[in-house]
Every structure is written in structure tokens, then in C-alpha cells.
Design goal:
Length: 442
């Protein structure tokens, strides 16, 4: 093989993504911590506990990323640490995140900061969480605080992570806090998060004081959209296809449309829908954040309506490995004609067996999407280290660095995937040798 397979655009963000609660450890001030104490909620009875002790070891973790050629990092600020009680800001937590940002800068890692990644302070959860419209204003106050306090150190903001996943897991399937099963409430929650995103978008721009890049107004604001491919399972049973289309309409299309037009239109047959105009939401994306993991085959009546295609390769969590879907998802969001940041993408693979090849094949599809016109400006692999994978506990191992949670020293072990990723990040290109090494003829 000769020549490059793909060269990525100049200034491309190469990084890894994580969220506070999944890696930091030791925070009992949010609703996830409380949920983890309820027997039967988390796989194997796991608890986030000390997680990766990233709260203490962030500098060391960022050094690993920087040595691997990353030039960016996605993290989240933990709302419940910064505002552990209503009306109280915790100065030590604020100082902590300044130290985190200073460390990222020292390591040449440009921060992309998420302001809501699934967790809520207990005082918010106890007032009805995102079902209560007042939460929108409380969140806006937190966003305003962060914009003023950290705005000169952060140029890239992600307001909310996967509003649709958050709403459906918490209020429809009930697998996440608060464990409700009410589709109408799930839609109300999703609408409130979308409205909050629109308001946060305006606040972050109003407060923008020039940013770390020192070129006048520099805030880039978006949210992260989970975009699974949804397809009917049985071609001969059209109701499967119908359900897939209905789910796609509310879970994928309506969310993107709302952020472009400002019109929230959410409906599910048999549930109370939401129709709302939010002027601040119209045109509220400077970039589209895409989280892509898999394709689901959808069943009309099954208890678990989402399955991997029979016989397809799957990850440790049973998610299909489907790199072609990544290209399709990228081309789908490219229709919005906005820059695209891949805010998450990865594979649960405790032994790093199939990840090396799946990663390279996926980056090939990313390169193809760019060649086909998608304006992709960065990629954040989920995740830098293994971490607490929500209701799957420590069963979902997504790390470029494996963490041995049984060892109190929590050692980070570099995987082959980390090494391959590092070569791509260093050269800003996908070289034929890398593909050959993982057995791909591209
Ligand atoms: C995404 C979440 C992230 C992580 C990955 C595997 O839905 O945003 O926190 O759990 O899935």
C-alpha cells in the first residue's frame, strides 16, 4: 500500500472525553451517588466510590494524554461540587477546576468543558430535578457563574450531554435516577434540557470575555447528541421499521431540529407530548457535538426493543461494532452545515481485543465523511481511562488506559489502542502502516 489514507484538517482536535462523576471519585453530593446506594440498581452492586481518583490524579492523567499526542481534552465540571447546596458556591471546588484548567494548558490540551453530564446536585434532584421547570433557572445560574469564573480559560463549551439519553434512561426506562417510567415526563424533561441549552448558549456568549485563545470573542458552544442508528429488525415485519422511525423522529431528529429552529416538538404515541417555542434555542449551535457508538435493531413488541443484529460483532456491553454507521451519522449531522466535533466515540473492551481494529476502521470512516463534505473539526475518544460506566458499573471498560480497580494504587496501563491512537494524533493522519497492523486493507 502506498500514500496516505487520510490527512485530517489543520488544527483538528485530537483528544479523549470523560465526565466528572465517572472518573473523579469521592463525591456524595449528587443524585447518582445516592442512586448507587440502592441495591439492584448498578450492575454487580458496583458504586462509583473512589472511581479513578482523577480528582487527585488529573495532572498525571493529562500527562499521559499529552505524551500520546492529544491536543485537546473533554471534561465536565461537577455542578454538585461547585454548588453543593442551594445558594452556596464551594471555593475549594472552584479552585480545583482552575487547577485542572491550568494543568490542561500546561500539557497543551485545549479544554472542552461540559456543564451538565447526567449528574445533578441533591438539592436539585430533591426539588423534582429536570421535571421541575425551575431547574432551568438554577442551571442557568450555574452556567453564568462558570462563564464568568472560567470563561477566560475555556473556549469550547458543551452545555448538556445527551439530553435525550438522560431523559429516556431516567424517566422512560427508569434505569437511571430518578428511576421513573413515564414517557410524558421523559418528554417534559427533554424539553426542559433543550430550553436550558438555548439559554445557556446565550449566557456563554454574553459573558464571553475573550477566552484562552486571546482573540476577542472566542466561545464556541454546542451540546452533545447521541446518534444511534435505528433500524427495524425484521424486514418482513413492517411494524419494527415503523417503531424505528418513530423513535428516530423523537430521539434524534426532533432534538437536532429544536436546536436549529427553536421549535421543540416532542411526541410519543400514547404519551403527553410537548410543543414549545424557545427563541433562544434557535440557531444555538456553533458546532454539533456527535456521540456515536452503535446501531440498534428495533423490535415493535419485545421487552428490550433494542438488539444488536444477530451474528454481528459486539462489544463487552453487547453493542454492535458498526463503523459504517459512524460515517452515516457524520453525514447526517453534516446536513446542518455546521462544524462537527465528535464529542464521544469508543468501545467497551476490557482486554483491548477488538478495539484497535475497530478504532482504526472508525477513523477511516471519519476520514471518508470529511472527504464527502462533512466539516469535522475534532474527535474525542471515549475515554482516556476505564471508569464508572453508570448502571453498567465497572463492567464497561472504555479506556485507552486500563485501570485495575482491584489494586488500591489504581494503576493506568497503556493499551495498544492508546498507542495506535497516539500515532494518528501525532501525525494528524491515518497512515497505511497503521491499517495494515490491525489487519485492515483500506
Ligand atoms: C455515553 C455517555 C458517557 C459514557 C458513554 C459510554 O452515552 O455520555 O458518559 O457513559 O456513553
Amino acid at each position: 500500500m502506498s500514500g496516505l489514507i487520510h490527512r485530517f484538517p489543520i488544527g483538528f482536535h485530537w483528544g479523549a472525553a470523560a465526565s466528572a462523576h465517572q472518573v473523579e471519585g469521592g463525591n456524595d453530593k449528587n443524585d447518582w451517588w445516592r442512586f448507587e446506594q440502592i441495591p439492584g440498581r448498578i450492575h454487580g452492586g458496583d458504586k462509583s466510590g473512589a472511581a479513578c481518583r482523577h480528582y487527585e490524579r488529573f495532572d498525571e492523567d493529562f500527562a499521559l494524554a499529552a505524551a500520546d499526542g492529544h491536543n485537546a481534552h473533554r471534561l465536565s465540571f461537577e455542578w454538585s461540587r461547585i454548588a453543593p447546596e442551594r445558594g452556596r458556591i464551594d471555593a475549594a471546588a472552584v479552585a480545583h477546576y482552575h487547577a485542572v484548567l491550568e494543568s490542561l494548558e500546561r500539557h497543551g490540551l485545549r479544554p472542552l468543558v461540559t456543564l451538565h453530564h447526567f449528574t445533578n446536585p441533591l438539592w436539585i434532584a430533591d426539588r423534582g430535578g429536570w421535571e421541575n421547570p425551575e431547574t432551568i433557572q438554577h442551571f442557568c445560574a450555574f452556567v453564568r457563574f462558570c462563564a464568568r469564573e472560567f470563561g477566560s480559560e475555556v473556549d469550547w463549551w458543551c452545555t448538556v450531554n445527551e439530553p435525550e439519553v438522560f431523559a429516556f434512561r431516567g424517566w422512560s426506562s427508569g434505569l437511571w435516577p430518578p428511576g421513573r417510567r413515564d414517557d410524558g415526563a421523559a418528554l417534559a424533561v427533554m424539553a426542559n434540557l433543550l430550553e436550558a441549552h438555548g439559554l445557556a448558549y446565550r449566557i456563554l456568549h454574553e459573558q464571553d470575555r475573550g477566552g484562552a485563545e486571546g482573540r476577542g470573542r472566542t466561545a464556541h458552544v454546542g451540546f452533545a447528541k447521541h446518534l444511534p442508528q435505528l433500524e427495524g429488525d425484521r424486514w418482513w415485519f413492517p411494524l419494527d421499521g415503523l417503531r424505528a422511525r418513530l423513535e428516530d423522529a423523537v430521539f434524534n431528529e426532533a432534538v437536532l431540529e429544536a436546536a436549529v429552529t427553536g421549535e421543540i416538538r416532542l411526541s410519543i404515541p400514547g404519551a403527553r407530548g410537548v410543543t414549545r417555542s424557545v427563541p433562544e434555542l434557535a440557531g444555538s449551535l456553533d458546532y454539533v457535538g456527535l456521540n456515536y457508538y452503535t446501531r440498534w435493531k428495533v423490535h415493535m413488541f419485545a421487552r428490550d426493543p433494542h438488539v444488536a443484529p444477530r451474528g454481528a460483532p459486539t462489544t463487552d456491553l453487547g453493542w454492535e461494532i458498526y463503523p459504517q454507521g459512524f460515517e452515516r451519522a457524520l453525514l447526517r449531522v453534516a446536513r446542518l452545515k455546521l462544524p462537527i466535533l465528535v464529542t464521544e466515540h469508543g468501545f467497551a473492551d476490557a482486554l483491548d481485543k477488538f478495539r484497535p481494529r475497530a478504532l482504526i476502521e472508525s477513523l477511516h470512516h471519519l476520514g471518508r465523511a470529511i472527504a464527502r463534505g462533512a466539516n469535522v473539526i475534532g474527535y474525542y475518544h471515549w475515554s482516556l481511562t476505564d471508569n464508572f460506566e453508570w448502571a453498567d458499573g465497572y463492567r464497561g471498560r472504555f479506556g485507552l488506559y486500563q485501570v485495575d480497580f482491584a489494586d488500591p494504587a489504581l494503576p493506568r496501563n497503556r493499551t495498544r489502542s492508546a498507542e495506535l491512537y497516539s500515532r494518528i494524533a501525532h501525525s494528524n493522519a491515518l497512515e497505511p502502516e497503521v491499517a495494515v497492523e490491525v489487519g485492515l486493507a483500506l
